[in-house]
Design goal:
Layout (H helix, E strand, L loop, with lengths): L3 H7 L4 E5 L5 H10 L3 E4 L2 H4 L11 E4 L8 H7 L2 E5 L2 H13 L4 E6 L16 H8 L5 E7 L12 H13 L4 E3 L6 H6 L4 E4 L6
Parallel strand pairs: 1-2, 1-8, 2-3, 3-4, 4-5, 5-6, 6-7
């Protein structure tokens, strides 16, 4: 866990979301003790076994593909959903948030590299999805999220990060979640306000 405090210092101007999938609460606690304030989980089945043991003051982000039949479990337990990629999913989240009187902060996931196997709205459909989300009373659209193409050289991803920044600015959104363990520095250079780092923190 020697990397945690230096990374937190390095990211003083950016929000660090510690990706805690495949790690137990005992493994997560040292990160929280070191000052991590945000964690991210991407599978409800795994998260459900530990989410209640994470202190309430820690902001919990759902960052994986969210199936509509899991929304009713995720909305009460998480503080942010970063992986909204369709109006159908947004409607379901809005409905479940209304049930419990919650205004659910969300990010729209953009498939910026337009890979058929990846989740996310295509860039050309983003404006329409934002307009649809804006009609829902129990959602708060905070920003955009992307998982860019995995290239051998992280530097090759810079153009995707740059395009995401352009979309964030165009739509006047506060947050831009992009960059992971091997490319977060490039993402920050291109305007990320939030990075999602996992393996680097657990070394």
């Amino acid at each position: 866990m020697t990397n945690v405090k230096p990374i937190l210092q390095e990211l003083s101007e950016v929000t660090l979301v510690a990706v805690t999938k495949n790690h137990t609460v005992d493994e997560i606690n040292p990160l929280l003790e070191a000052g991590v304030k945000h964690i991210g989980e991407n599978r409800w089945q795994e998260a459900s076994e530990k989410i209640d043991e994470i202190p309430e003051e820690i902001t919990k982000h759902f960052i994986g593909k969210l199936q509509t039949n899991k929304v009713k479990f995720v909305v009460p337990k998480f503080d942010v959903i970063q992986s909204v990629d369709s109006f159908k999913l947004a409607i379901k989240i809005d409905h479940e948030a209304e049930k419990i009187g919650k205004k659910m902060p969300i990010f729209i996931q953009v498939n910026i590299s337009e890979e058929p196997q990846k989740s996310g709205v295509l860039p050309e459909n983003l404006e329409a999805l934002i307009a649809e989300v804006d009609t829902l009373d129990h959602l708060e659209l905070q920003g955009l999220m992307a998982i860019v193409m995995n290239t051998e050289d992280p530097e090759e991803r810079r153009d995707y990060f740059r395009k995401m920044k352009e979309l964030q600015v165009k739509h006047g959104l506060k947050e831009l979640s992009m960059g992971m363990s091997d490319d977060y520095k490039i993402a920050i250079e291109e305007g990320a306000t939030m990075v999602r780092i996992g393996s680097l923190l657990f070394q």
